[in-house]
Amino acid sequence: MADDAVVVGYDVGDATARAMVERVVARARATGRAVTVAVVDSAGVLVAFARMDGALRFSAGLATEKARTAASFGRPTAFMESMMAERPVFAQSFTNQGNWYLGRGGYPLLHDGKPVGGIGVSGDEADFEDDLAREEAEAFGG
Under a CB-based contact definition with an 8 Å cutoff, are residues 65 and 97 in contact? Predict the structure, then answer.
């Protein structure tokens, strides 16, 4: 078998993903807000998740989609939002292809510059969600 027949990849670990979720929940709780937070692996599969009491139910799906989008493209979902802003027809077609999310609140988790997962936060104001997700992504990669 050739050396390039198998590609080895990395994923965010369970303990790290759970700790990230706990920190986001604690920060949201400290401000009196309720959010949903999801951490996925490099394939977009859910690793850790929490929907706080009071967080809107639909935020569960959005947080997961944000995390999946960020992990899949290796970019914050806010970048995807700005990239698609002037292409609404393409953006709609694009989101239908993979349940992608084009807005703030999702960040890739990078290891050696490559995505090993993603984190998504939903259920509150976009800037607050984005700040929570960004802080965890930066702490992970930093």
Answer: no
CB 69 within 8 A of CB 77: yes
Contacts of 76 (CB under 8 A, 6+ apart): 70, 104, 106, 107, 108, 130, 133, 134, 137
Tokens coding 52: 């706080």
By three-state DSSP, how is residue 124 classified?
A: coil
pLDDT in tens, 3-45: 677 877 899 999 999 999 999 999 999 999 999 999 999 999 9
Q: Residue 115 CB: number of other CB atoms within 10 A?
A: 24
Sorted by where each begins, the domain ranges of the chain are 10-141
Note the pTM of the prediction, 2 decimals: 0.90
DSSP string across 6-52:
S-------HHHHHHHHHHHHHHHHHTT---EEEEEETTS-EEEEEE-
Q: What is the mean pLDDT of residues 92-112?
A: 84
Statement: 10-141 belongs to CATH 3.30.450.150: yes
